[in-house]
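[step 3/7] inverse_fold.run input=structure_tokens len=662
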């Protein structure tokens, strides 16, 4: 059996958020403040049985909450109706228990199966924070804030009283729900919920120290060895632990006996005043020594040289390794706890931002090896949830395991990348390979810019600064240079493959590409070929992304091979160049000429820098250098006062003005 879906309602930004859960590992990615930590926090609160505070209640729900309470206090809404109408914090767990063997033990899931239909193989568990105070108590608590001299007159303190007492007003209730009839439900205990979902959370703020100021993770592991019965010890370490216990027990006895004798003698020889006399019992000293306590409390991680047999303290090793070691200890302890339970359950593991202090290669290795590591620890299947801001972890995971957190004005939704993969089988392989190879940070950006090549990638940050200085972006508080954009070099031949993915993610995207004008010319053997020509002689474009865009605008199938006239492309308006949250720009006419590449467009608007006169032909704009990268670097360092081509200005202004939240 396995958890297949989690639905959270009315918790912080999670107004109504549904997470489809992978059988093994679910990775939640997204830019900052998109509810990734909130998802873990809500599940943790419920499974720990903790109360929630008013800070956890969504801002979007508060006006309605205040209104419903006021109607109740004004006696226009009954207590029963109040309980029904208030939007409460709720979390649903959907568990699939379809089994190969119908006689298998369902264990901790059994209390939550209330549908007798043999064809039903899912169980729905709901935990919600319901209004727990009775009508009289609620009225007594709020009366002074809503009535003055017996007249209904809500005070400014009413909202504060509600906020301060929110945790007392709402309590956790657990239900087993019939998935075929959600009105059919039974109240269950919190213990039954926790028995079904034993969980462990490793937060991002991991304490990595092994010094006296922090609880040693190694000390915790050692304590577990001493406190576990021999029968429960891991077979891999059982013999060594038994030997350690034997040594400690013998040492305890030997030291105890010798210290008692020596200290008793010292005490008797030190006491005067005639006591004890010969008729009295002698004084003795009994010390309670426990070497195992010393091992538990004073054992610290160190690093030993294999050649010199010298050791160094934990603080001398990198934080990345310590983070990894810390997580290994915690995972091992959790797996051990699951094994001890001996009952069928659905263990859940939450790891927040595992990449802390890890270098990129270590992050990639962690993501690739995690499932194998957990399977080696335990035969019980552990379903793991990760959150991450690491492009290396995000792009190492399979698409099917990734959930993209998208924030809107209405709240956060979690998009299953596997949904996109199934709907776009022709694009997904390319996108997957590209993300894996480049480790781009598309999942964590507010906006994206796809550029043609290395020249654009080098120049764009500087061009954005120039546009801002020139006032192209107007007087906005946070211009594009202060926004979180991903700059992705993909080329006109492949950028269109990313457009459906960008639309799926809902990220505003600018595509800067080249006009790439071509015309039919006679080649070798008299064969007609498409040859790059100046724009005035061009018949069409060789740019696949522009052609894809035109076909989409005209509703033509993508595999259509009919010729698209260059004049039609040049005549595109700003509206024609925009599709939902995507916008495309390419070279336009300036100073009477139009280049068909970035380099030509730059030369056209910076003629003085390149010793070009006012009256020149398109041929003179042609870039004949060997390296486009050198061209871009020379422009930045030799001609810092260069002008930015209009098509780039237009595109950057469009992107600057796009709203992320809608």
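[step 3/7] decode complete -> sequence:
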């Amino acid at each position: 059996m396995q958890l297949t879906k989690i639905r959270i309602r009315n918790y912080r930004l999670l107004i109504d958020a549904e997470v489809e859960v992978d059988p093994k590992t679910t990775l939640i990615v997204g830019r900052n403040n998109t509810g990734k930590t909130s998802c873990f926090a809500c599940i943790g609160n419920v499974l720990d049985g903790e109360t929630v505070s008013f800070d956890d209640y969504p801002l979007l729900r508060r006006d309605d909450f205040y209104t419903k309470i006021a109607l109740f206090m004004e006696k226009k809404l009954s207590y029963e109706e109040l309980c029904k109408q208030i939007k409460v914090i709720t979390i649903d767990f959907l568990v699939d228990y379809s089994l190969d063997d119908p006689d298998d033990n369902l264990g901790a899931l059994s209390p939550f199966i209330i549908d007798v239909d043999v064809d039903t193989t899912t169980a729905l568990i709901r935990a919600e924070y319901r209004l727990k105070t009775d009508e009289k108590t609620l009225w007594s608590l709020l009366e002074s804030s809503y009535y003055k001299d017996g007249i209904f007159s809500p005070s400014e303190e009413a909202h504060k009283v509600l906020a301060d007492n929110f945790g007392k007003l709402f309590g956790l209730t657990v239900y087993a729900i019939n998935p075929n009839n959600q009105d059919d439900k039974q109240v269950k205990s919190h213990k039954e919920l926790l028995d079904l979902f034993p969980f462990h959370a490793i937060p991002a703020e991991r304490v990595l120290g092994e010094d006296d100021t922090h609880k040693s993770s190694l000390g915790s592991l050692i304590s577990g060895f001493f406190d576990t019965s021999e029968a429960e010890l891991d077979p891999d370490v059982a013999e060594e632990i038994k030997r350690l216990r034997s040594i400690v027990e013998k040492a305890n006895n030997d030291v105890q006996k010798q210290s008692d004798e020596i200290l008793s003698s010292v005490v008797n020889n030190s006491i005067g005043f005639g006591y004890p006399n010969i008729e009295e019992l002698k004084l003795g000293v009994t010390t309670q020594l426990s070497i195992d306590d010393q091992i538990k409390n004073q054992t610290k991680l160190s690093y030993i040289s294999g050649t010199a047999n010298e050791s160094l303290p934990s603080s001398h090793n990198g934080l990345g390794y310590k983070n990894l070691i810390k997580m290994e200890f915690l995972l091992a302890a959790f797996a051990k706890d699951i094994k001890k339970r001996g009952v069928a359950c659905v263990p859940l593991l939450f790891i927040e931002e595992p990449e802390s202090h890890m270098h990129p290669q270590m992050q990639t290795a962690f993501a690739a090896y995690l499932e194998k590591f957990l399977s080696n620890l335990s035969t019980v299947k552990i379903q793991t949830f990760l959150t991450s801001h690491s492009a290396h972890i995000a792009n190492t995971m399979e698409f099917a395991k990734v959930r993209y957190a998208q924030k809107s004005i209405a709240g956060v939704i979690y998009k299953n990348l596997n949904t996109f993969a199934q709907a776009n089988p022709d694009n997904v392989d390319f996108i997957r390979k590209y993300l894996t190879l480049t480790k781009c940070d598309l999942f964590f950006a507010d906006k994206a810019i796809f550029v043609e090549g290395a020249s654009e990638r080098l120049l764009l940050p500087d061009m954005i600064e120039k546009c801002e200085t020139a006032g192209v972006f107007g007087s906005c508080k946070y211009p594009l240079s202060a926004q979180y954009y991903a700059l992705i070099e993909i080329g006109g031949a492949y950028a269109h493959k990313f457009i459906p993915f960008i639309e799926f993610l809902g990220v505003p995207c600018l595509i800067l590409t080249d006009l790439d004008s071509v015309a039919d010319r006679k080649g070798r053997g008299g064969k007609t070929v498409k040859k790059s020509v100046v724009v005035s002689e061009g018949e069409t474009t060789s740019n696949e992304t522009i052609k894809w865009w035109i076909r989409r605008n005209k509703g033509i199938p993508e595999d259509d091979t009919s010729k698209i006239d260059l004049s039609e492309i040049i005549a595109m308006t700003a509206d024609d160049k925009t599709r939902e949250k995507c916008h495309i720009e390419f070279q336009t006419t300036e100073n009477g000429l139009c280049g068909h590449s970035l380099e030509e467009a730059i030369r056209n608007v910076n003629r003085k820098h390149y010793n070009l006169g006012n009256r020149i032909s398109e041929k003179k704009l042609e870039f004949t250098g060997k390296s486009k990268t050198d061209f871009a670097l020379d422009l930045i360092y030799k001609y810092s006062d260069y002008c930015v081509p209009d098509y780039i200005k237009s595109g950057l202004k469009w992107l600057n003005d796009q709203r992320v939240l809608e």
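[step 4/7] annotate
The mean pLDDT is 85.
The longest strand covers residues 2-11.
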